[in-house]
Amino acid sequence: MATTITITGAGGQIGYALLFRIAAGDLLGPDEKVRLRLLEIPQGLRAAEGAALELHDGAFDLLEHVEVTDDAAIGFHGANLALLVGARPRGPGMERADLLAANAGIFGPQGRAIAEHAAADVRVTVIGNPANTNALIAAASAEGLPAERFTALTRLDENRARAQVAAALDAPVSSIRRVPIWGNHSATQYPDVSHATVDGRPVLDALAERVGDVRVWLEQTFIPRVAKRGAEIIEVRGSSSVASAANAAIEHARDWVRGTDDWTSAGVVSHGEYGVPEGLMSSFPVRSVDGEWQIVEGLELDEWARARVDASVAELVEEREAVRALGVL
Ligand code: NAI
Fold first, then answer.
1. Do 89 and 164 sit in the same domain of this protein?
2. Which one from 65, 185, 195, 252 is the annotated catalytic residue?
3. Neighbour tally for 251: CB within 10 Å
4. Do 148 and 159 belong to one domain?
5. Bridge partners of 191?
6. pTM (whole model) above 0.95
7. Cβ–Cβ under 8 Å, residues 13 and 239
8. Boundaries of each Lactate/malate dehydrogenase C-terminal domain copy (predicted)?
9. Known active-site residue 185
10. 170 CA distance to ligand 1 centroid (A)?
11. Residues lining ligand 1, Cβ inside 6 A
């Protein structure tokens, strides 16, 4: 049996970076056949059809079928995994409420279509921004599916954070573990090194030898660098993060299906863990066990960390309120 994967916004940049890696087995491994469903809006169909032609020319052993459509009922039909990339970007002069409203108009209907047409085991990863609140809207609209089946991508933020720690310590990135992201996939996020290790040794100790006052380094260098990395990429590259975002999305979905041997980060529904209001889609340190994300519980958050988590969570609450005011939730 093949796994059916739906990718929305498949005619866009991240879609293009995702498709060929998935077809090559990077998500599900070298033994699992894949069926791809590329869901676009009419303006994006030609680009998605072009990508489908190239997938054909890739002659991938694992790729059984590719379907391109602008009909959500067809796009999500039988989906075991859905990567929701297509979203409405913020246009010039667009207020945040307008942005949330436009995206509610996408993720509400997609949540409903997933509930109606996807496979019973469907797992949804929202990449399109504002990812956490879009995931919340999709989950709330997917009657009959548990909210745990909907997640928001914060793995790119975690990867950025691990890479920054590795660079600061002049250590290989593979030696850095446990750098979770808390809160929203936005500039308020809190990348947390307080439990991180480098080759099993506390990162905080290693940093103290390198950067002097660790708190100052975290506040003035590390956290802003990670939180604003997306803007830095746009400035240097002239275009937003694409390949690194696709890579993170593949890692997130792969770990969800195949499990983790340590913590990672994902935007998942809160049941009140760490005081995060129930129902919010917040990033937490998580493990994936038997196909389900589990929030890592019992971690100490000192006053400084608590304030940062609270600030990011407050932004998620505001986004939820704004969406509720639109009558969407
Ligand atoms: P893009 O503009 O190249 O592609 C977006 C595609 O989505 C377009 O082809 C468009 O036609 C399509 N689309 C729009 N509405 C749709 C709908 N209702 N159904 C299906 N398709 C639809 O953008 P790119 O670079 O691929 O980025 C996509 C999204 O990913 C953006 O919202 C971006 O902010 C977000 N992003 C999220 C990251 C994360 O870490 N969570 C990291 C980087 C980007």
1. no
2. 185
3. 19
4. no
5. 181
6. yes
7. yes
8. 154-323
9. yes
10. 34
11. 8-9, 11-15, 39-41, 43-44, 47, 85-87, 89, 106, 127-129, 131, 153, 156, 185, 240-242, 245
